[in-house]
Each structure stands twice: as C-alpha cells, then as structure tokens.
Amino acid sequence: MASPTIESILHENRLFSPADEFVQNASIKSLEEYRALAERAAADPAQFWAELASQELHWFKSWDTVLDWQPPFAKWFVGGKINISYNCLDRHLTTWRRNKAALIWEGEPGDSRTLTYAQLHREVCQVANVLKGLGVQKGDRVGIYMPMVPEAAIAMLACARIGAPHTVIFGGFSAEALKDRLNDAEAKVVITADGGFRKDKIVPLKAAVDQALADGGVPSVASVLVVQRTKAEITMVEGRDHWWHELQATASAHCPAEEMDAEDLLFILYTSGTTGKPKGVVHTTGGYNLYTHTTFKWTFDIKDTDVYWCTADVGWITGHSYIVYGPLSNGATTVMYEGVPRPSNPGCFWDVIEKYGVTIFYTAPTAIRAFIKMGDELPKARDLSSLRLLGTVGEPINPEAWMWYHQVIGGERCPIVDTWWQTETGGFMITPLPGAIATKPGSATLPFPGILADVVDLDGNPVPPGEGGYLVIKHPWPSMMRTVYGDDDRYRRTYWEHIAPINGQYLYFAGDGARKDADGYFWVMGRVDDVINVSGHRLGTMEVESALVSHPAVAEAAVVGRKDDLKGEDIFAFVILEGHYSASDELKQELKQHVVNEIGAIARPGEIRFADALPKTRSGKIIRRFLRNLASGEAIAGDASTMEDQSVLDQLRQG
Ligand code: WT7
User: Fold this and answer.
1) Which residues bind ATP per the record (predicted)?
2) pTM: predicted TM-score of the whole model, two decimal places
C-alpha cells in the first residue's frame, strides 16, 4: 500500500477553511450546523429522508412506508408514486425556470447548443413517444450507447418518462462489451449515433452496434434508433434501424410522465467486479431521485446563478447522477462537453469555463495530473475568475495535485469538494459541505448527513483513529443499489458478506480501505480487492484476464495494478503462452489490441510480461501480492514459504 500518494496523504495536515464570502452565501454555513444536521439525521435516518422527500420532490402519491429494510434488501418510500423525469423537467415549467438554460452543450468541433427547460421537456416528450412507437413499454429495457451529445441526456430522460429502465453503455466500450451488457439487460431497443467526435477522430458507434447485433448476437433487440451526429457513412438495416431525427419530426410533444412506484427500476449500470462478468448495478426511482437531488444541492451549494460543469461521461454513474438527474432535479444549468484535451486543443477545458462562465467545476484527479503536466500557461491564459467551487472524484487525490487545483485553477478562493462514492452508492457518501467543513488535501472529510460511515476490522469492530481498516456504511440510504440485476445472491456475497454483521447490524462494504483521523475525517486509501482503478475507472482483474485468455496464444494470465503518475494505476499483465506460441513484441502488441477489442481502450494493458509459471499457493491460488511487487519493480515483500514452487519468482523477476 506504500505508494507515494498514500505516503504523502499519511503525512498531510494542512487545513483549508472556506473564505468568508463563500460562507456568507452558503446554505450550510458552519461545522455546528453540519453537526446538528448529521446528528438529527443519525438519530432517525428514515424520518430525516422522509422530511426531505416531501419538501424537495413532487410525488403523485405519498408513500406508506419510508423504509422497509430486510438486510441486505432495502425498499424506500414504499407505495409512493413518482417520476424522475417529471421532477427534472415538468415541475420547473410552471416557474420562472421554464426559460432558464437546463443544458448547455459544447461539441468537440466547436458547435454548441443550449436547451432551456421548456425545450428539453419538449424533446424528451417527443423521444418518449418515439420509443413508444417502437414498442417500448413500461418495464422494457433500453440500451444507450452514445457520444456526449444532448441526445444522450434526452434519451435517458425519455426512458425514465415512460418507465423504461435504461442501461447506458460507455461509448468507449467495444462491441463485445456492448453485446454482453445488452444481453444481460435483455434490451429491446438500442439508442446510438452514427458516431461521436473524440480527439479529432470519429468513434464508429453504429458500426460497433452492428457488430454486437450481427448473427443474432443480441436476440432481444428489435430496433436501433440512430442520432445523426457526424454524418459519417453508416449502414442502416431495413426494418431494424431508424433515424432519430426522422421519427422525432413527426412525434407528438405531448407525453405525460408515467406514475412510477418509488421502487420501480430506473436504470441498470454495469460496473466491474472481482469476477469476470460485469455486475448490473440496479438503481430504483424514488430514493435515487431524492438522494442525488439532495447531495447535488448541498455539496455544490447550488444557486440559480450557477453554471455547473461535470467533465465525466454520461456512460458512468457520475454522468447519471451529476450531469443529468441531480442538476436537472434542482433546476440547475448543467454543461455537457463532448471533447477531451487533445493535441489540437490542450486548453479546451479552460476555454469552456471562460466561454460559459462556469462557476462550479467537477473533474477527476487523473485529469488534474494531466493538466499539471501540460503546464500552468494554458489555464493562466484564460479567464477562470467565474469559478467559485471545485470538485474531484474517482480516486484518492494526491495532495500535490490538490494544491495545484486549489492554486492554479481555484485561484486560492474556491473550496474543493473531494467526493467519495461509487456506482453502487448512487450519490456522494463522504464529502465536504463546502461552506461548513474545512478541507484537508487528500481527505474526502466527513459523511453526508444521513450517512453512517465508519472504518472497521473484518469482525465489524471500529478501528481506532489513525489505523487503517475497511470503509463501511452502517445504515441503508435512499440511493443504495438494490441488487445486482438478476442475481440477488451475487449482491449479497459481494457487498454484505466480507465483513461480519455486528450486533445484528449489517455493514455495506464495497471494497475500499480507509482510516479516520483524530478529527473524524476519512482518508480513503484505495481498493483492497482485485479491482484496478485506471484513470478513475474501475476494472476487474478477472475481466482483463478473461479477455487475455480468450486469445488463442494465451494459456493463463494474471493482471495487477501498478502505480502510474497519470492514470493512478495502470494494468500490468503476466501471461503464460500456449506451448506452440513464442514470445515476441508483436505478440505483446497483438494481445494489448485484443484486450481493447474485447473490453475497450480503457482496459489496454500498459505492460505485458511473458512467464513460464505464476506464483501460486499450494492450493493453487495466484499470489497477487507478489505480482504487484514484481510489476512495480519492488522487492518481494513477505513470506514466500506458502508458495508451491520457489523458482517461479526468480524467473519472473528477470522478466
Ligand atoms: C471507486 C468507485 C463514483 C464515481 C466515480 C467512480 C474510488 C471514487 C473517490 C474519492 C477516493 C474514490 C473508490 C471507489 N473513488 N471517488 N473521492 N476518493 N477514492 O465510480 O467506478 O463506481 O468507482 O472509486 O475506490 O470504490 P466507480
């Protein structure tokens, strides 16, 4: 665990209080106010959330029971009727926000579009009717495989409007990965585009859909809806494929929001786990709406004058909760940007901030480290004075990157909210409330009110301040995942059985190690399981191993994370070849490309090392600890006596 980041975090003791001006305008202004809220919430979490649910959201019908908790299965607002698309759109239309910018979009080539709440509502209704016309009914799943264009958000809201759960598949995933996910969700329709712009090239999304669906690859899919984005040449399959703009042109703009049960499925989002098969994380309607609404409102201290920009892709949970649902439910202005920093425009992020007067900017440590490398000149050449608040998410941020963000981007006046959460949690779990909680570089600070978090040992006992342990949540919260899609047992095993229940209390644990300091601040230390965090994206080691082994040359593979200055972690793969293949650089390149084809570019191994054997215990388990040491060029730490064959290590060391 002793990487430079962790080392520096361990010795960090600077404290940054928000500026007076920020505090005066903040909705939660002091640590005392935060503590009062958190204590009231902890005393009766269900009551706390129920009050907020009636204050903050529109319900067609109120609930009968706030929380039905049959560990590890929770139901929130049972009997309540609600629609998240209604809360994100319709309810703003009767206020002055009707003509406020809901979505400001900037395309990579420099084209742009702004949709007011009224305009967004109109398009969502039309597309909802288009989906109905394609036979989509309440409960049917819809796959969304899109670039970062407004239609991605419109598609999500249209699905939510008619009660068709969506499953967004990140546009960087390969046809293979797309196929697996569409099949697991048994999607009826796929919404995609003729392509997207990325780094001045066209990503051929439609071609990937064609490949996934070829030869009956996804039997459930009956129709494909295609957004015209790049005008690239694509093939349209007669009877199956339809142009979005053609169907939208004749669709009615009248589509009342379906009254959904609070516990109806809102979406499935696939995330990596420690086994090969991606997990379909299930989120439902009412609790998710409430929790993303409230966390967005308080953590970003949102005002009607704010221009908020989150740089994530809608294909990840960050995009779901904090580009689309959280901001729109609050009636905020959310910016969506198709591009990423690239050689032709390395300063594009700062251009977007200047152009739209962005006030709140939310990005990831891996991006911040890349900006540091590009030099201060780029941000310094732009006017960033509109910024008032910064955020970070995805992995522990090293204090050096935090300080740069604070000084160069925030001009030392913007608080930084370091938000710890997961696909599974739906929303922020540990985060500063920026007017109330002083920050320490590298710490996500304190739990959100209503979240009972702790650091415990394997028996569920809290560990003393300063000691490392497992980060757990002790009480259900409204946006917790409900299950793994179609696999309750995997849900139970993955999240609820590693740490023993204590005093009858079940503890949610999703894989992070942490410690608390004397002030109760949480310091997340990273994953303790076989998950690699590459540029803030989770990849299961097994997933990459399965991809490697599916190549005819590979007999066995083991994959570990290796510290990387830019990406946080990089993938290091040990590969044993089938007898009749011989090691070569060409084969290494071929295997890397094979992983890209199987999963997507985010999973490309940084390094592959060929070996004759892997270090294993006598019972045949790969000793990953040793592989991690080898990958980072460190001495083998710890006892090797449990190893089956001692000579294996010598051979691996030589590479
Ligand atoms: C894992 C969740 C939640 C959106 C982004 C990733 C790591 C996330 C932080 C943070 C330290 C963090 C954890 C977590 N992580 N945010 N602020 N500080 N670690 O979502 O793909 O579900 O990954 O990302 O390891 O378990 P995800």
Assistant:
1) 394-396, 418-423, 512, 527, 538
2) 0.94
Task: Reply yes or no: is the peptide bond before residue 379 cis, omega within 30 of 0.
Answer: no
Instruction: Show the DSSP H helices in 256-412 as ranges.
Output: 285-299, 317-319, 326-329, 348-356, 365-374, 377-380, 399-404
Say how far apart CA 525 and CA 57 lie, in whole Å: 35
Range from 25-29, 256-260, 618-622 carrying the lowest mean pLDDT: 618-622
Backbone dihedral angles phi then psi of residue 531, each to the nearest 5 degrees: -115, 135
Three-state SS for 459?
coil
CA atoms within 13 A on the CB side of 465: 5
- pLDDT, residue 6, reads 60
Name every protein residue with a CB atom under 6 angstroms from any ligand 1 atom.
271, 317-318, 393-396, 418-423, 444, 510-512, 524, 526-527, 533, 536-538
- Class of residue 480 by CB neighbours under 10 A (exposed 0-12, middle 13-18, buried 19+): buried
CA distance 482 to 428: 17
Q: Is the pLDDT of residue 640 over 80?
A: no
Ligand 1 atom at minimal distance to the Cα of residue 536 = 6
Q: What distance in angstroms lies between residue 632's CA and the mean position of ligand 1's atoms?
A: 23
Q: How many CB atoms sit inside 10 A of residue 348's CB? A: 18
Pocket test for ligand 1, best of 6, 272, 323, 395 (most atoms within 8 A of CB): 395
Neighbours of 25 (CB within 10 A): 12
* Apex 327 CA angle, 326 and 333, nearest 5: 175
The atom of ligand 1 lying closest to the CA of 397 is 18
Chain center to CA of 46: 26
Distance of CA 8 from the midpoint of ligand 1 (Å)? 19
